Amino acid sequence: MSERPRTTLLRNGDVHSPADPFATAMVVEGGHIAWVGSEGAADSFADGVDEVIDLQGALVTPAFTDAHVHTTATGLALTGLDLSGAATLGEALERVRAYAAARPGDRILLGHGWDAARWPEGRPPSRAELDAAADGRPLYLTRVDVHSAVVTTALLDLVPNARDLRGFTPDGPLTDDAHHAVRSTAHAAVTPAQRTEAQRAALARAVSLGIGSVHECAGPLISGEDDLTGLLRLAAEEPGPRVVGYWAEAFTSVNQLAKIRELGAHGAAGDLFVDGSLGSHTACLHEPYADAPGATGTAHLDADTVAAHVAACTEAGVQAGFHAIGDAALTTVVTGVRAAAEKVGLDRVRAARHRVEHAEMLTPEHIAAFAESALTASVQPAFDAAWGGDDGMYAARLGRERARTLNPYAAMLRAGVPLALGSDSPVTPLDPWGTIRAAAFHRTPEHRVSVRAAFTAHTRGGWRAIGRDDAGVLVPGAPADYAVWEAGDLVVQVPDARVANWSTDPRSGTPGLPELVPGGQLPRCVRTVVAGRTVYAA
């Protein structure tokens, strides 16, 4: 006979559950929620459970899902050379110098996170400056958006054909094919042991922040098959967050999609690039960049390729998806999806819950098309926090008027577009409560959503994005994926100035959430549980 599932009673806290907005207790049996209710009713369970946890007033919520992560790159940034905190070009070069001196045995030095738009010098390091800082060694440094990189001469010498590829510049950041070529060589230098160490570090950071699931966005131009299969194997063997894998390769027939199942991936989606990024001037636009006259970015896929991919995935029962940021790229996506729907049927396309990553430069017509095709928008509110506003990078690239149209979350929700929130880590850090705050306090006020809506998109939204409507919420029968938090007063926050910005009135019947005003302290995770198993305890 099988062993009886272990039961746990959590009591004397606040349990965020639509089943009972005043819940203070919860029973977990095995890997699922068994009961949610009040403190008085909890007494009847106390003698029949294996463990009682006194929450001492702590908040219990569903664990977060980060819907867009690059796990190995995140771990390498956590354990290696991270330039995201460098305030000046000089400081960045000094960090390179110190890192190179500390790693004499590395065949290729790897780093991430520089952002010249934030430096007073206003420019990336030159190749000569990098050569000097790295003492003539091969060095690969990705920009914060990971769509361009600066490299040393020694690394270019290992990839001699890079100088003949699209995106090569003699002394500036590499983009497009040139970038992909040097990236492949740089990543090949990472040993299996280094890769596993980086993946463990990233997954450990995720659960320490109350993240119970991550969507890994892998692909041939990003990380490689061994990286994805190694990560999925690690996640299956060791305690940590659930990992849902995506493989970003375009397919034209149902037979080709056998590769997705062989890799253990959930879908042929994620960073299947239709374009690049705004920071690197590679997002594909209908009108030129404001700070690069004549430049409209780079198109990697056309509408026919999008249509063929979506049709094949739909027929195979596999989720499709794309990376699209610029308005021209998003036009390509919606045109292709509509063409696929004409071939295989709109209802089948809608049922497949295909997804689009980032989806930043949406027009009202794009939003309507997303809603029509039930496309999930996998979005990163921290992008707006980092680069939005009238004086941010977006405004520099596009001009203030176009920049104000980016990331229109409120309009997307009004139209019925499903949202799943994530970080695109290491582009922006794993930080779920910070992500929710960024959505609720969007730099463009008309794009703000309520804390509750953003919270739902960062918990239940990630599960719905993989076709699971029974998870990401604390109700009986749902998976026992939850986090316990030290938090202040719980409130009901909304972004619309026409109503009260926050309320603690219990008569609303709405479960409260931590107050997330800018500058305030965010909740601290003290426990993360996945499938009923504690994977992190402070």
UniProtKB/TrEMBL annotation:
Gene Ontology molecular function terms on file: hydrolase activity, acting on carbon-nitrogen (but not peptide) bonds
Domain Amidohydrolase: 51-536
CDD domains for the chain: YtcJ_like
Coiled-coil annotated spans: none
Superkingdom as given in the UniProt entry: Bacteria
Protein name: Amidohydrolase 3 domain-containing protein
Organism of this sequence: Streptomyces mobaraensis (strain ATCC 29032 / DSM 40847 / JCM 4168 / NBRC 13819 / NCIMB 11159 / IPCR 16-22)
Lineage: Bacteria, Bacillati, Actinomycetota, Actinomycetes, Kitasatosporales
